[in-house]
Amino acid sequence: MRPFYENLPFLCIFLAMLAGITTSILHSGKWAMRISITVLTVVGAASAWLLYATASQNTYFVYAMGKFPSPWGNELRAGPLEAGLALVFCIVMACSLLGGLQDIFEDILPGKQNLYFVMMDMLLASLLSMLYTNDIFTGYVFIEINTIAACAIVMAKDNNQTLVATMRYLVMSLLGSGLFLISLALLYSITGHLLMPQLGESIHSLFVGGLYNEPLTVLVGLMVLGLAIKSALFPFHSWLPDAHGSSTTASSAILSGLVLKGYIVLLIKIFYRVFNISEVRSLKVTNVLFVLGALAMIMGSVKALQEGHSKRMVAYSSVAQIGYIYLGLGLGIEAGVVAAVFQIIAHAFTKPLLFVSVGALSSTAGHEKKWYYLRGAGRRCKLAGIGFTVGGLSMVGIPLLAGFVTKLYLAQGATLAAWQTITALAVLAVSSVLNAMYYIPAIVQIWSSGSTCQEIGIEPKVRRADPALAVSILVLGAGVILLGVCYRPVVSVISAGLALL
Amino acid sequence: MTKNIKEQWRQFAAWVNGVENDEPVVTPEEKRAARPHLPGFVHRVLSEKNELRLYHAFSAVMCLVFTGTLLLTVLFLPTFGGAGNPTENEVMERYVEKGIEEVGATNLISNIILVYRGFDTFGESCVLFLAATCVMILLRKDEKNTTAYDLAERAEDAEIESEENTTVLRSVVRMLMPVILLFGVYVLLNGHLSPGGGFSGGAILGAGLILFENAFGLEKVRRFMSEHVYHIIKVAALYFYGFTMIYVFFTGANDLHSIIGTGIPGMIFSAGVIMPINVAVGLEVACTMYAFYAFFSKGEL
Fold first, then answer.
1. Which of A163, A209, A423, A493 is in the most buried spot, having the most CB atoms within 10 Å?
2. What integer pLDDT is reported at residue B32 of this predicted model?
C-alpha cells in the first residue's frame, strides 16, 4: 500500500471529470458554478498537499493506472513541478471564474450556463492530465479534450464574432492536434513504446546507434510544430486575438493564462523525459524555437501597439509573452527552461488579472471595449484599475512584480547560452520598451479624469467591486506581487522539479 | 513615406493623450480593396485576382511539400509488419501472450483498450460526451440562434414528415429495426469475445435510432428517448464507467484485493469489467450519435 497522497493526482483528475458529467444535468448555472469552484478548491488543496509531500522529500513517484505498470499500462507521474503547476492552475482558474462571473451570467443564455461550467471542469481535468501524464498517448487524448473544451468556452458567448473566432481557433487547433498525432504514429513505429521512460530509453539508443535519423528529425519537427500552433507561437498566432479578444471575460482569462500553458508544459515534459535537452539541442529544435520566440516578443508587441480594442491588445500581448517562454526554451540550457517555467507561472497570474480587470473596467462604460471610451474607467472601478495597473506594470517589467523576475532570469540564462546571448538581451530590452509603450498609455487612460463614453451615448457608471470580483483581483494581484518579491522559493521548487524530470 | 510615418506618429500621440479616436470608418469592402496587409510594391504588381491565385498556388505548394516530406519519411520507417521491428517488443508480447490469462477477454483489442490502457479509453468516452455537449451549446434551440424563419421552416418539415408518403421507408424500417437493434446488442455484449465492443455496438444502435427517427419522426422517438431520458442514460453510463475505472485503478495501483476476476475466457460472463463497460460505452455512443443527428437536424431532442 502506497502513501495516500500518491493517489491524489488520479483522484483529482477523476473528481474534475465526474463533476463535469454531473454538471451537465443541472438546470441552474449558479449551482454549476458552485460545483466548479468547490472542485477547484478541493483539487487546489490536494495539489498543495502533493506539492508539500513531494517537495519536502525532493522526490517524485509514478502511479500505474490499474495493476499493469509501464510499459504495458497507462501511468501518471508527479513531482514538485507537476504539483506546483497544478496548484497554480487551480488558483488561477478559480480566480478567473470568480472575476468573470458577472459577465458569464450576462453573456450566456440561462439554459446553457451549466454547459459552460461542464467545459470548465473538463478543461481542468485535461490540464491536470497533461501535467501528470507519463504516457504520451494519454497526453494526446487530453489534448483533444482540451481543444474541444477551449473552443466551446469561446463559442459559449454565441454572437457572430465569437462564432467566427471559434471556427478559426478550431481549424488551427485541430491542425496542431493532427500534426502531433502524426508524430506520435512515427514515434511509435520506430520505438514501439508510448510510455515516457521507455520512450526515453529507446530514443537514446537510437541516437547512440544513429538509427532512424530521418523519421526522428521529422517527428520532432511535427511534434514541436503541432504544439507551437496550439500554444500560438508567433507565425501561428493568427487565431489568438480573435478567440481571446471576443470571448467572455473568464474564457479569455483562462485561455490566455492556462490553456496555452498546458501544451507548453507537455512540450517541456517531452523534451525532458522522452528526449533530453542535449538531444533536443543537437536536433537544432531549440534554435528554431529561439528565433520564433524572439520574433513573437517583438511582433506580438508591435501588433498590440496598433490595437485600439482593449481585450485584443491584451490578447496580442499574450503572443509576446508566449514568446518569452519559447525564448527561454530556445536557449537550450537548464537555466533557460527554469526561466520559461517561471514565466509560465508569472504569466498565468498576470494575464488573467489583466483580462478580469479589463472586463470590469469596460463594464463601467457599457461593455465598450475600445481604449478611447475607457477614459476614467479606473476611477469608476478602483479595484479593477489597480489590478490593471499592477498587471500592466508587471508586463512592462517593473521590479518587485512577477514580469521583472522572468526578465531577470531570462537575461541571466542568456549570458550562459551558446550563441544566443546578445540577441536574447537585445530582444528583451526592445520588448520591454514596446510593452511599456502600450501598457503605460492604457494605464494613463484609465486613470485620467473625465469620461468619453457619452460620445456614443453610453452613460458612465460607477461599479463597486462585488465580493467575487474583489477576491479574484486581490488573489491574482497578490500572486503577481508575491512572485515578484519572494521568487526564490518558487524558483528553487522549479529547479528541483526540473532536475527530477 | 515620411508623411506616412508622421501621420502614424500623430495618431499615436493622439492615442497616448487620449484626445481623439479619429480612425476613419472603413467598410469591409474598402478594407479589402485597400489590402492593407500587403506592402506597397506588392500592391502595384499584384492585382486582387492574382493575389488570390498566388495564395492558392502557395497553399498547393505547401501541401505538396508536406505530403512529400511525410511520404519520404515513410521510406525510412521499418517495413510494415516486418519481423524484428521496434514495435515487436515486450509490450506486444505480453498483450498477445498473457492478455487472456491476465484480463480474460479473448478479444485482445478489448483487453488493451479497456484494461491495459483503460485511462485513455475513458478519456475518449469523455471526448464523445464533450462533443455532444458542445453541439448542445451551439445548436440547442434558443432565442439567439433560432429566428421565426427557422421555426417556420422546421414546422414545414414536420408537416411533410407527418404526411403518409413514407410508406416504403416505414415498412422497411419496421422490418429492419429489430434486426439492427439485436445486432447492436449482440456486438455490445460480445465485445470481449469477438470483434466489436462498446464503440462499434453503440454506433450500430445509434444508426438504428437515426433511421427510426427518419421514418417515424421526432414525436415517436420521444416516447422512449426524450431529452430527459437522454441525460439519464448518458450520465448513468458515464458514472458507471467512471466509478468502475476508479475502483480498478485504485485497487490496482495500491495492490489491494480486487473483487473483479477474469472468469473463464470465452464465456459470456467473463473478463471482469470489460462487458459491463462495453455496455456503458455503447449506450453513451448510441446516445451521442443520435443527439448529434437530432441537434443538427431539429435543434432539439
1. A493
2. 53
* DSSP result, A94-152: HHHHHHTHHHHHHHS-GGGHHHHHHHHHHHHHHHHHHHHBSBHHHHHHHHHHHHHHHHH
**B175 and B26 inside one domain:** no
Decide if pLDDT at B156 tops 70: yes
Verify that B138 and B187 share a domain, yes or no: yes
On whether residue B84 sits in a domain, the answer given is no
Contact B246 A189 (CB under 8 A): no
Per-residue pLDDT tens digits for B191-243:
888 888 889 999 999 999 999 988 888 888 888 888 899 999 999 999 999 99
Partner B contacted by A355 (CB < 8 A): no
List the grid coordinates of A492.
Answer: 528553487
Task: With respect to residue B81, please indicate whether it lies within any of the assigned structural domains.
Answer: no
Model confidence band, residue A251 (pLDDT cutoffs 50, 70, 90): very high
Contacts of A21 in chain B (CB under 8 A): 129, 235, 238-239, 242
- Report whether pLDDT(A118) > 90: yes
Binned at pLDDT 50, 70 and 90, residue B45 comes out as low
Whether residue A71 is preceded by a cis peptide bond, meaning omega within 30 degrees of 0, is yes
Nine-digit cell string for A447: 486613470
B136 with B57, same domain?
no
* Overall domain count for chain B: 2
B171: distance to nearest CA of chain A, Å? 36
Compute the mean pLDDT over every residue in chain A, rounded to the nearest whole number.
92
Nearest to B119 among A7, A74, A372 (CB): A74
- How high is the pLDDT of residue B86? 82
Q: Is residue B85 part of a domain?
A: no
| A420–chain B Cβ distance below 8 A for any pair | no
For the question of an ipTM over 0.85, the answer is yes
3-state secondary structure of A217: helix
The sign of the dihedral angle between the CA atoms of A240, A243, A244, A246 is: positive
Mean pLDDT of A406-418: 92
Mutation to test the A interface, candidates B69, B90, B108, B130, most A Cβ within 10 Å: B130
Task: Kindly report the backbone phi and psi dihedral angles of residue A76, in degrees, each rounded to the nearest multiple of 5, phi listed first.
Answer: -110, 160
- Residue B100 lies inside a defined structural domain of this protein: no
Last residue of a domain, one of B76, B98, B124: B76
The residue with greater pLDDT, A295 or B165, is A295
Separation of alpha carbons A138 and A136, rounded Å: 5
C-beta atoms of B133 and A142 within 8 A: no
Which pLDDT score, from 0 to 100, does residue B235 have? Answer: 93
Question: What is the DSSP secondary-structure string of A376-429?
Answer: THHHHSHHHHHHHHHHHHHHHT-TTSHHHHHHHHHHHHHHHSSS-HHHHHHHHH
Q: What is the pLDDT of residue A283?
A: 86
Q: Exposed e or buried b for every residue in A63-72, given b needs 16+ CB within 10 A?
A: bbbbbbebbb
Q: Residues A59-75: what's their mean pLDDT?
A: 88
Out of B73, B136, B249, name the one closest to residue A65 (CB): B249
Domain locations in chain A as residue ranges: 284-501
Task: Give the closest-approach CA distance of B182 to chain A in angstroms.
Answer: 29
Residue B39, pLDDT above cutoff 70: no
| B249 and B155 both lie in a single domain | yes
Q: Report the gap between the CA of A75 and the closest CA in chain B (Å).
A: 9
Shared domain for B31 and B135, answered yes or no, is no
Using a CB-CB cut-off of 8 Å, the residues of chain A touching B232 are 25
Q: Which band of pLDDT confidence, cut at 50, 70 and 90, is reported for residue B24?
A: low
Boundary of a domain, candidates B53, B76, B99 = B76
State mean pLDDT over B93-97: 87
Does residue B138 share a domain with residue B250?
yes
> Contact A349/A480 with Cβ under 8 angstroms?
yes
Name the residue among A155, A182, A214 with its Cβ closest to that of B137.
A155
